[in-house]
Write a structure and sequence with these properties.
The chain has 148 residues and is α+β, with helices and mostly antiparallel strands. Among the domains are: 22-47, no CATH class; 71-145, Glutaredoxin (3-Layer(aba) Sandwich), CATH 3.40.30. It contains four helices and seven strands, in the order αββββαβαββα. It has a four-stranded mixed sheet with strand order 5-4-6-7, sandwiched between helices. A three-stranded antiparallel sheet has the order 2-1-3, with no helix packed on it. The longest helix is centred in the N-terminal third of the chain and has 17 residues, at 2-18. The chain is rod-shaped and about 90 Å long. The termini are far apart.
């Protein structure tokens, strides 16, 4: 009996406080106050507070496997080029697979570089987009446009 009476009293207290108004006022020094009862000097406004809620979040789409995530990325490079190293490092840091074609040590590299009219390294392709040289912001934009 005592336990059920305690639960009933607790339920009444919670129910009565759930509908209670909250008051907000600012004192002469500019301090803001909140209370469940208005100040004696008046000037308080009732505030309608809403409880925090969590709305459902849409599921995050699964990432595509790297092999099919975006357009093919090809770098035409040399071993001694500092910008080629930066481009490789940037792509590796983003886990983007790329074809690294050395234009000095491979027949394929020399032939393709000559056919594209290359004039300096790196030459970077993301799909059909081309960049001569290396600019991280430009490469990032190309990758985004290419689905990466």
């Amino acid at each position: 009996m005592t336990k059920s009476l305690s639960i009933l009293v607790l339920a009444l207290i919670v129910a009565s406080s759930a509908g209670a108004a909250i008051y907000r006022w600012v004192d002469a020094d500019g301090r803001i106050f909140y209370s469940d009862s208005p100040p004696k000097q008046g000037g308080a406004k009732a505030v309608n507070l809403q409880p925090n809620t969590v709305s459902p979040v849409a599921p995050v789409p699964k990432a595509k496997p790297a092999a099919v995530a975006g357009a093919k990325v090809t770098l035409y490079t040399t071993t001694w080029c500092g910008y080629c190293k930066k481009a490789r490092a940037y792509l590796a840091s983003r886990n983007i697979p790329f074809d690294d074609v050395d234009i000095e040590t491979t027949d394929r590299g020399r032939r393709e570089y000559r056919e594209m009219g290359g004039n300096g390294v790196p030459v970077i392709f993301v799909g059909s987009q081309r960049m001569d040289g290396y600019d991280q912001g430009g490469l990032q934009a190309m990758l985004q446009a290419g689905g990466w």
